Amino acid sequence: MNDQYDPENTLQINERVRIPYADLLYRYTRSSGPGGQHTNKTETAVELVFDLTHTPVLTEDERALALQRLSGYLDTEGLLHLESQSERSQLRNREEVTQRFAELLRRALQPVRRRRPTQPSRAARERRLNRKRHTAEVKTRRRRPSIDE
Questions:
Q1: pLDDT digits (tens, 9 = 90+) for 83-121
Q2: In angstroms, how far is the first alpha carbon of the chain from the final one?
Q3: Fewer CB within 10 Å, N or C, the chain?
Q4: Residue range 64-93, pLDDT digits in tens
């Protein structure tokens, strides 16, 4: 068995898609904002980069759907970028950005559910017509009385 697709070395996205951890590129930088000496000396911010356009894991349909839905996260080369710097620990930031990536890709790959057209029930049509009659009556009462009355 190819160890690249070994369940131990892959990130489960859905029942069909498994991303090898080797395909995920992590970059580490210093976090911004307050934090004093710890922030100034340690590289705890994590950026995850994933090549969505060239990954062999996704089918052409899945890739097209993911590219369309995740266009806001992609750069001009089709690389997906996610960043995390909310935690003080590099490991926790890495875990957090990986989980966010998995959830984002899982949602992007969900198929579009087609709406089944339905007819309103007889009771719903009757309620709608009664509301319309009532509104028309209210508006009629607001008018100035005519000379005939």
A1: 888 888 888 989 999 999 999 999 988 888 898 999 999
A2: 93
A3: C
A4: 888 889 888 888 888 889 888 888 888 898
**Token pair 């052409």 is at which residue?**
60
Contact in structure between 26 and 47 (CB atoms under 8 Å):
yes
What whole-number distance in Å separates Cα of residue 109 and Cα of residue 55?
Answer: 14
Is residue 39 packed enough to be buried (19+ CB in 10 Å), middle (13-18) or exposed (0-12)? Answer: middle
Show the domains of the chain with their CATH numbers: 3-109 (3.30.160.20)
Residues near 44 by Cβ (< 8 Å), separated by ≥ 6? 28, 30, 31, 85, 87, 88, 89, 90, 93
